[in-house]
Amino acid sequence: MLIDQHGRQLRYLRLAVTDRCNLRCRYCMPEEGIAFAPREALLNYGEILYLCDVLAELGINKVRLTGGEPLVRRDLPLLVRGLAELFPRLAMTTNGVLLPRHLDELTAAGLTHYNLSLDTLRPDRFFAITRRDEFAATRYALDELLRRQYPVKINVVVMRGKNDDELADFVELTRASAVEVRFIEAMPFNDDDGNHDVFIAYADMLERLRSTYPNLEQTPHQEGSAVTFRVPGYRGRVGIIPAYSRSLCGSCDRLRLTPRGTMLNCLYSTQGLELLPLLRQGIGRDELTDLIRTYVHGKYATGHETERHEQRGSIFASMTSIGG
Ligand code: SAM
Ligand code: SF4
């Protein structure tokens, strides 16, 4: 088992398979991109599956593919097939642009849950947020997921003056569909990303939601990174993710693996366990298992604690290098 110094058992791996992306969301990546990893600096599928086999034995039972945009990594369904043999629950977070053409193959390969990132329902705003003209593709992906009645969550990064007047439009998606819409605090990660200027805190979002839906009720069963609510009579749910306020750290059961093979205990970690060189030097399975156990044991109580102990200046160049 993977138990940290605060007694939490880690069961959930967020696996970033690439740092590349076909969009350039303003809160995530600069127009020119970042210093993307060359192919040889990425974990290959054999290395990922070997590591995941070790992690499955250590009690990880849920994996989410993320990135960058996971669907820009070549032959992703091959990786999904291998992971599905290890994990009963296999999810992916995607911007959806390439999803429809791969959806059947991914589902057949074993992907069970989909999170779609879509920050606006208005075509004219999509370009302003993502710097790419792909609204129709992403919206089509959402329609296809709903039509197939797959378990779907929609991630919405809420930004003052950009999309914060659309909260109710998103909530209305939960009226007839069993979808979960999750409003995310925009995380500032360096001084240039502009996220401070558009930031809206969890409490502010909740107040706005309650002013439109006074009978919004918190759902009895709470788990994961969102606090969830329901409008009575609506089929779906509404979540708020305090990504920056970090009020849910106490129940965190997450571990992260970056595309370059660094294991991280926290979204706010800057000093992780670099596994790629060890794997390429042929580290034995027992030694690898011990190293991972020891690293995980040092997980700090909260993201604030991690920041205090590990931060040097800005957090990281982009969310794409860590997987969100
Ligand atoms: N490309 C995929 C996508 O956009 O769904 C997966 C990777 S993306 C880094 C994962 C999630 O992180 C997305 O829902 C995205 O909106 C969110 N994200 C990226 N940058 C963020 C930031 N600065 N603050 C909050 N959420 C952010
Ligand atoms: Fe790409 Fe996702 Fe970042 Fe947008 S949030 S730039 S889609 S990795």
How would you describe the overall organization of this protein?
By secondary structure, this protein is an alpha/beta fold. The chain has a single domain, classed as Alpha-Beta Barrel (TIM Barrel). It contains 11 helices and 12 strands. A 12-stranded mixed β-sheet has the order 7-8-9-6-5-4-3-2-1-10-11-12. β11 and β12 form a beta hairpin. The longest helix is centred in the first third of the chain and has 13 residues. It is globular. The mean pLDDT is 92. Iron/sulfur cluster binds next to loops.
Q: Within the largest sheet, what's the order of strands?
A: 7-8-9-6-5-4-3-2-1-10-11-12
Major beta sheet summary? 12 strands, mixed
Cα(first) to Cα(last) distance is: 24 Å
Query: How many domains, as an integer?
Result: 1
| Distinct compounds present | S-adenosylmethionine, iron/sulfur cluster
Outline type: globular
CATH topology: TIM Barrel
CATH architecture: Alpha-Beta Barrel
Structural class: alpha/beta
* Count of separate DSSP helical elements: 11
Say which CATH homologous superfamily is assigned. Answer: Aldolase class I
Gyration radius over CA: 19 Å
What is the name of the CATH class?
Alpha Beta
Overall mean pLDDT stands at 92
Q: Helix and strand string, N-terminal first?
A: EHEHEHEHHEHEHHEEEEEEHHH
Estimate the strand proportion.
15-25%
The low-confidence runs, each spanning 5 or more residues with pLDDT under 50, are none
Q: Which percent range fits the helix content?
A: 25-40%
Q: How many individual β-strands?
A: 12
